[in-house]
Amino acid sequence: MFGGFGGGDNRMPPPDRNAVRNEIKMQASTTARGSVDIACVAAAVAAREAALGTAASTNAQALTSAYSARASALASAYTQTGNEAIKKAVKSSWANFGAALRLAQRGWKNAQKTAWTQFKTAIKACGPAASSVADTSNASADEKAGAGSD
Description:
Layout: H1 17-32, H2 38-77, H3 83-124, H4 139-144
């Protein structure tokens, strides 16, 4: 009846979706705060970081060893007599180096995956809303961190 004059759209505007989402997030975070054991989260993060630090150190040692072995093998290769013997020794040096890098990278990725898996398991024991304060969303940034050859 009222919409017949003026030809305008008399419907109500749709609700602001972001406002609704933000309200839901605020309600979830305020109700979840009491059920998070922050000390538990901190311990889980500390354990993860210690494991990643140890893995990075182990990886660095593996890389240093690979470069050292390559240097020695190449030095030895160039003491050979005859071009074919030198080429064969150089090729072997680089092949061994590549294998060592791949092994170091595999070890790093496995250690990284293990550390994050253990962290995600540990965080579950910290309360139903622990993931709301944990930094699990940053796992992808850590996965991109290279500690060796890709």
